[in-house]
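Hello,

Our lab assistant flagged a job as stuck in the queue for most of the afternoon. It eventually completed. Since we weren't sure the result was trustworthy after the delay, we are filing this so someone can double-check. Below is the sequence as submitted and the structure that was eventually returned. Let us know if re-running is recommended.
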Amino acid sequence: MEPNTLSDLANKEPLAGFRIAERWGVVAEPGYQAVPDVLLLKQRELEITSEELNVLLNLTAHWWRPKDFVFPGVSTIANRMDVSKRTIQRIVGSLTKKGFVRKDRTVDGKIFFDLSPLEEKLRPFAEKTLAERRRLRLLAELDTPRRDVIDGKV
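-- returned structure --
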C-alpha cells in the first residue's frame, strides 16, 4: 500500500493497554526509561543544548523514585557519550547553573545529583501543554459561534 497522506499511516487503534515491550520488543528487555515529552519537545524553550539533554537522559536513566539521588560517575557518562570527563563536568555545571539539577558530594567526596529541580523546571511547560489540549478539546466540542468566546475574541 502506498499512502496518500500521513493520516493514512496513522494507526487508529486506541493506545490503552499497549506496553513498552509490545512496542520495542526485545530491545526494551535490558531496560528503558520514561521521559516526559516536554523535556524533548520543549528543548529549545527550556534552552537546553543537545549535549545537556544527553547528560540529563544519562542521569534520568539512574532515577527510579522521586526522592532518590543519582550517582553515575562523570567518567561513565563521558564514556557513553564519547567525550572527555571535563566536557561532562562543564555540561553538569551548566545544568546546575540553569537550575535543572543539583550536584553535591558525600563526606568522602563522591558526587551525587538531585533531579527534583528537573521536574520543577518542566512543570510549567507540562501545565501549559495540558491547558492548550483542554482548550482545543473544548473548542472541538463547541459549536462554531461559541468558539469566539473560548478564543477570547468576544
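-- support follow-up --
The delay was a queue issue, not a problem with the job. The result is valid. The chain has a mean pLDDT of 88. Residues 6 and 94 are 39 Å apart (CA to CA).
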